[in-house]
């Protein structure tokens, strides 16, 4: 097997938006493993000093209209719009520091929770120990994943990295850890995958709007192409994860997002067990968990989890 191609976050492979006309930084054959290195979502090159309010250096290329710092795009040779991109997450190793912010965005949400002053938590990440420790002395377990795994919309022009979309992007689903495979509908020929916004740890919902925002020393992803998933077209992100099958729904509110996640999980149960939708719904009511993915990014997310072996 040849050497794994490495994509560094530098000029030509670092951007803050999705755009189908961005030239690929790398072109690979289906089945290739690519090692990405990523900056933290805010383009920072160093941890927050002191109380976290002092200025920090940002990577060149950061502009006021740029969103998350993304590494890519990677073109997958032969991929066509309408097919499915399979992104197998082989490894995600976070950088040695991270930052969490609270009360700095979504002022209506903060006010409702009685947040009157912002907070910035500075984290030291110990990969060997599997923990992160903040400046207040609190320690949490690491569960690293990439918050953004996505492709550009088919429409021309620059598109924000903030809202998640049916073809991926800022999904912020904490289940997409190493050992997962994320299946995404391909919107453009070549796929043009970009990734970033690594989180060393995050709770369901990402309720402050941020997790432990960090870069990655490496994120190893194996990229493949399929015509469909279980013989059916794919309309929303679906993943096979250590927690089980995960179907992601997106919407303008949690009701809409939950309905989209349920629509996908009923299709999944039908494909796996050969049952009609009414029976799939009855089974889902017994074994499927609905979880709030995120409330932070303009579009609400809900994911439906079908645990391994839940239906035999």
TrEMBL record:
Highest rank taxon of the organism: Bacteria
Molecular function terms from GO: hydrolase activity, acting on carbon-nitrogen (but not peptide) bonds, in linear amides
Designated name of the protein: Acetamidase/formamidase
Cross-referenced Gene3D superfamilies: Acetamidase/Formamidase-like domains (3.10.28.20)
Pfam families linked: FmdA_AmdA (PF03069)
Cleaved signal peptide residues: none
